[in-house]
Amino acid sequence: MIVGIIPARKNSKRIKNKNIKIFNGKPIIAWTIEKAIKSNIFDKIIVSTDSDKIANISLKYGAEINFKRPKNLSDDYSTLVDVMAHASGKCNDVFNQPDYACLLFATAPFISSQNLKEGFKKIKSNKFDYVLAISKFDFPIQRGLMLIENKIKMINQKNFLKRSQDLSETFHDAGQFCFGKSKNWIKKKNIFNSDTSFVEIDKWRCQDIDNLNDWRMAEKLFKLNFNEIK
Questions:
Q1: Model-level pTM?
Q2: Cα(first)–Cα(last) distance of the chain, in Å?
């Protein structure tokens, strides 16, 4: 059995009601729920929330609410790992120990059902503890800069004369999904110090939405690529 878990708390600081704010015609969480349903790999899609409003909207679009997220996991200091450990434990109680649980981000309207299928195939192979969605950095981070007392300084001066093509490609968490064995979520096994594999996401699909400028840019990009959003 595999469950999809969408963490979605009510208090969001930089964008009010971020998880249910209307994004291209529907609450942004609905895009994640619908893509998860479309992938046809989840036995249950559950929203972990402390909000009745988020819960009702999630139910409307096909998710389930089997438990309420506690207050101590709904503040600014709660981590996704803590939330997933709690939700996976609750799923054990309700569904008799699902084999896998997948963290699905509530604000990931570019998520692809095909990418979800790829991730599920990998985690189901039983070779990995986790399978994480990643995307490539646009610019070599080895040539990154720091700001110190109104001046710039290279993080690593040795890379100053190196060509970009001679530096290793680097990747980051795409902020879309992470499949894991349920027991690993419950144990809070470190994603980045485990046998973790990946699904590489197209760069245009990887849009961080942290503030209103990010939101507006994401909406424009979504409209430009609407025919490819699947």
A1: 0.91
A2: 24
